[in-house]
Amino acid sequence: MKTYPIKFTPILQDKIWGGQKLKTVLNKQTDLNRVGESWEISSVKDAISVVANGMYKGKSLIELIAENKTSLLGEKVYQQFGNTFPLLIKFIDATENLSIQLHPNDELAQKRHNSFGKTEMWYVVDADKGAELNVGFSKEMTPEAYQQAVAEKKVLDVCNFEKVQAGDSYFIKAGLVHAIGAGCLIAEIQQTSDITYRIYDWDRVDDQGNERELHTDLAVEALDYSECTDVKCRFEKKKNQPSEIATCDYFTTNYLKVNDLFTRDLLQIASFVVYICVGGSGTIIVNGIKENIQSGETILIPANAEKVDIEAQEIELLEVYIK
Predict the structure, then answer these.
(1) How crowded is residue 57: how many other Cβ atoms within 10 Å of its Cβ?
(2) Which domain holds residue 315?
(3) Is 85 in the same domain as 203?
(4) Cα–Cα distance measured from residue 170 to residue 116, given in angstroms and rounded to the nearest whole number
């Protein structure tokens, strides 16, 4: 395939809890009022990304994979996932608290929904003063204790909340309760799955006075009931050197801050690589082809690229691939 830095047209989604930061902070162009999410790279049904630049402009991600297979995804990745892009890359802006929720693991999601499960991670791009996230329970729980907390509307009492600031990161394995709090602008890397179990939605109602559907019973078997109070990822923010934030079977994410010129050898990475810009701006160069990138933009590098050059006065990137 023609190997170059590939951009996709963001898929912007109006959400009742969405705000303006995707437009004002990350420069997303839209007439939507409450922009909650920008799906940067997606092969989720009915939300499939379309190439925005270069010779593949106008092609869908699914077409791109079908035509290029291992040269785009990498041999092992293609063998495992076929024509499905294995990750969903998003930016999320919450002006209200999102629901307390969780996702099933692969085994349960396959059995119930014929879907992948969802392990994910968050990187905080921006946060209002006092903004919080929920990740995990604040104490050891049991199925019975969880059901009692739901019945008594005391779920919040057993959830672990963390004050956050820009640059914080959290790894959320399948089964952990979690919620993005009001005032958070997040970059999210996750398995390709849209299976979510809501267990509390702040007693909100719609215009007709109806509460959103909860999935209390479905969650019983899916939940991780362990105490989870040490959840922030620890990583170094070095210049011109990738620092691992999180790694698992589904993705590895590194933090990369570049000043001047940095060359990344990709021969040892048998996978596509995604660069998500979370600060600053710069230029990504593959095979002599240049593509500018700024905060809020995302670029896909095909697996057959041998190296990538990054030029910038200062840029902060999340580097994502599958080991």
Answers:
(1) 12
(2) 243-321
(3) yes
(4) 21
